[in-house]
Amino acid sequence: MSNAQGGGALGFLHKSHIVAKPGYNRWRVPPASIAIHLCIGSVYAWSVFNPALMRQHGVVSPAASDWSLSSVVWIFSVAIVFLGLSAAFAGKWLEEVGPRMVGVVAAFLWGGGFIIGSFGISSHQLWLIYLGYGVLGGCGLGLGYVSPVSTLIRWFPDRRGMATGMAIMGFGGGAMIAAPVKGWLLGVFAKAPDYLGSQDAVATVVENGRLFAETAAGKIEVVIASAQQAAEVGGQAGVYAVGTGDTGAAATFMTLGIVYFIVMILASFQYRVPQNGWKPEGWKPKPVASGLVTQNNVHIDQALKTPQFWQMWLMLCLNVTAGIGVIGVAKTMMSEIFGTTMPLIVTAGFASTYVLMISVFNMVGRFFWASTSDYIGRKATYMCFFVLGPLLYLSIPYLASAGASAPSTIYLIGFYLATMIIFSMYGGGFATIPAYLADMFGTMHVGGIHGRILTAWSTAGVLGPLAITSLRQMSVSNAINDLAARVDPGVFADTFGAPIGQLQQLVDAHTVTIARLMEIAPAGTVDPTPSLYNTTMYAMAALLVVAFFANLLMKPVKEHHHHDEAELAAVPVE
User: Fold this and answer.
1) Cβ(292)–Cβ(378) under 8 Å?
2) Of 451, 445, 437, 433, whose CA–CA distance to 563 is shortest?
3) Rounded to two decimals, what is the model's pTM?
4) Tens digit of pLDDT for each residue in 490-507?
5) Which secondary-structure segment (H or E) carries 222?
6) Which one, out of 43, 196, 546, 574, has a CA that is 20 to 30 A from the CA of 477?
């Protein structure tokens, strides 16, 4: 890049202009990295927006013109996909221009994505939310995620794991802060729609699927809210005019966009890069027994030609897929199994605290495991993930079934601890991979290589939920067929008003369920609900076994992949 050395309108952002002076305190860099990751980590709290977006017009209840859940739930997935894609494509650019320029661009994309999304909500244009939050915001996620990694690794060659763990811990904790803040902002900006009266007092008519009320001003579209729905906006049950209220989503998006932009810009200007060849005072690299920590460097494009890159890509992809496998069903299992057998302990409040603890262990695990890797090595850390992980996954079906058949707090505690350790290793995998990459490929291009490997995250974000839903549905179908075979055909026909030969049609219509079949099953029939997740857990354990061998076979990168001296001399000085 000819502009790269400081020319052009944005030249002052280039890394050549942010080289730290002698005596610079390297501990000024991690807070900036954490601040950016806290901002972009709020993506994990996307689900807070779903209810508001689904009733933007009706406010108290969805109106006919409001978006469905299936329309808005994919916005999050689009953002995660673009996170991986942008990180992959921008990683090389990061190495050329440095973290400040990338951080500033990330601020414009992430903050701007919210602002464009705000216009999409207020104008009720769903494509604008997908473009703003999903595409542009997703690109901001990717750039913001990778921007501090290579810089921190260069500032902390003595504590690579701890340094990257601190920043990436911020991403895991972003949702913990964002979820209550988003909920509070939605409440502040929300406005109840006009109340027309109780359902009995207002004459309504349905036209083309829409509900209308006759008023003195003419016919207007309305929705009917239950007492519970109306209480959310401080109203009462009855009829409300569509389009006269506000969920507060548009104003919340605008506020967050501005705040995130300001915080990320300020944080980006705190970035500094060390002088070429800088090392902490008194620190000397010490040999590691594994031999996997190199003093050489591998070019970003050359890294993709090594088996080590693809081994790590597979390890990250499988670790994330397995983690999503538990995250996707843990709360449901807790509520369905332990909530029914131990209702005095597993209350709604207990389930909410459990969800909060998932975020806590995801966040703390990022720092704990990454810091631990500084002492035991990255390969040994991933061995912990891939040895402990399968054992924990295999224990979950046993604990769930035992807890259902013989309720005891021992099984509940075991389930709780097993899932929390899994969540910590899920976060730890994200936080440890940058240091592992630096060990294998050197620090010169680690930011770009890290960006490329994050495509594993995008892949897992699609494959994980797909695998979970498919495996669970298969288990449900098998359980229903097994139960139906045990039930007396005459009793079945009397209960469901159709012969057992129409089982599939009845299942598709949600008429026949496991719970309904258990009501007419012979005495002594075991409820299959606790075992519905067994196949998923066994599959996730199998994925980690594959990852175990990918990590076991990790060897140092061969010498012919390293930069030679002539190439190193041509690399611009930082």
Assistant:
1) yes
2) 445
3) 0.79
4) 888 888 878 888 888 888
5) strand 218-225
6) 546
